[in-house]
Amino acid sequence: MNKTEYADKILNDRKNKDEFFKNHPQSPIPIKDKNQFKGLDYYEPDMNYRFVLELKELEEKKSIKVNDSAGNVRDMLIWGEFHFKIGNTKCSLQAYKSVAGEERLFVPFKDKTNVKETYGAGKYLDLIYGKDQTEDGKWILDFNKATNPWCAYSENYACPFVPPANWLDVKVLAGEKNYPLGH
Questions:
Q1: How many DSSP H helices and E strands does the chain contain?
Q2: Residue 86 pairs with which residues in a beta bridge?
Q3: How crowded is residue 100: how many other Cβ atoms within 10 Å of its Cβ?
Q4: Measuring CA to CA, how many Å separate 138 from each of 68, 93, 142?
Q5: pLDDT digit string, tens, across residues 65-99
Q6: Which of 108, 49, 56, 52 is nearest to 82 (CA)?
Q7: To the nearest whole number, what is the mean pLDDT of the chain?
Q8: Greatest CA separation found in the chain?
């Protein structure tokens, strides 16, 4: 896929998400904001923030406690780690699962854009087995698909906080920016 095709796909996915957020009854956008909602704010698609990586899966999965925005504590399994570089900076992110058989890897992260440009508590990537993998089993870690947790749109949602292991010391200029109508 060339850069233009890639950008078109990302932009189309965003258009569909905006439509869902504007019109769907399960949207996290509060009813009071729906008339003003014109879409989310995003960084331009940038293939420099798309990585094809091996997951360094842990032999023995470690359990960690993760607090959420409602004061609850969730158990998560550290499933593995991704290692990559943004610019000249070496980075790593842990991938989590709620339960061993889950078909999704949860990759929350914070970076140097949080608060001023992006949601203060961080952003999320959800990777689905098969869908977000190459034919040879590598993972596609695409920060252009990074989303805000639903608690960024409404206080009615409880979202897990990003564990300190996933705080990046770089700016990730990709994915969703701050919610324009903020609460």
A1: 2, 7
A2: 89
A3: 8
A4: 30, 15, 12
A5: 999 999 999 999 999 999 999 999 999 999 999 99
A6: 56
A7: 95
A8: 50
| 59, 79 contact by CB (below 8 A) | no
Residues 174 and 88: beta-carbon distance below 8 Å: no
pLDDT tier for residue 181 given thresholds of 50, 70 and 90: confident
pLDDT of residue 180: 80
**Nearest partner of 117 among 70, 182, 54, judged by Cα:** 182
Ordered DSSP codes for 50-72: EEEE--EEEEEEEEEEEEBTTS-
Residue 99 exposure: Cα atoms within 13 Å on the Cβ side: 2
pLDDT tens by residue, 149-176: 999 999 999 999 999 999 999 999 999 9
Residues 6 or more apart from 33 whose CB is under 8 A from it? Answer: 181
Q: Please give the structure tokens belonging to residue 92.
A: 């790593």
Q: Who contacts 146 (Cβ-Cβ below 8 Å, separation ≥6)?
A: 109, 123, 124, 125, 172, 174, 175, 176
The amino acid at 94: Q
